[in-house]
């Protein structure tokens, strides 16, 4: 079983930056990809970004491409999400997720471990 713990959320003004961290522990040997999702009040949880541990390949949702950067530190089993040029519509609870190799990275069902979430609030 993989345990994921997020940190780094908070309140920031429009145009500001935040960096989220997600530390993985437990049975991480089967983890192929790590992703970030977000969920705003009254909305579905949506894909934000993903990284493949072994290849360092990265994938982004269109809404965040060019502003967010996902990266990983294999030695620390930690994945980061650097968020720049934040907008009010980026406000949400951000969740870290881990999963095996799959044909796609965006579906929620392709991840089998989730963190508890961290709140990001962007004030306009």
Mean pLDDT, rounded to whole units?
Answer: 95
How much beta, percentage-wise?
over 45%
Structural class by sheet pairing and helices = mainly beta
Poorly predicted ranges: none
Largest sheet features: 7 strands, mixed
The sequence of SSEs as H and E is EEEEEEEEEEE
Give the end-to-end Cα distance, rounded to a whole number of Å: 40 Å
* SS element count, helices: 0
- Oligomeric composition of the shown chains: single chain
Radius of gyration, in Å, reads 13 Å
Query: How would the global form be characterised?
Result: globular
Helix content: under 10%
**Count of individual beta strands:** 11
Give a summary of the structure in a few sentences.
The chain has strands at 2-7, 10-13, 18-26, 33-39, 46-52, 58-60, 68-73, 78-83, 92-99, 113-114, 118-123. With 124 residues, the protein is mainly beta.
């Amino acid at each position: 079983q993989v345990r994921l713990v997020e940190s780094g959320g908070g309140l920031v003004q429009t145009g500001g930056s935040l960096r989220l961290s997600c530390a993985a522990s437990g049975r991480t040997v089967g983890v192929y990809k790590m992703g970030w999702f977000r969920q705003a009040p009254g909305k579905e949880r949506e894909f934000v970004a993903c990284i493949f541990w072994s290849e360092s390949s990265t994938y982004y949702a269109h809404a965040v491409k060019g502003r967010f950067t996902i990266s990983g530190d294999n030695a620390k089993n930690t994945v980061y999400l650097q968020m720049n040029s934040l907008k009010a519509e980026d406000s949400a609870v951000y969740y870290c997720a881990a999963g095996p190799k799959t044909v796609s990275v965006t579906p929620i069902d392709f991840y089998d471990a989730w963190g508890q979430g961290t709140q990001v609030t962007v004030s306009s």
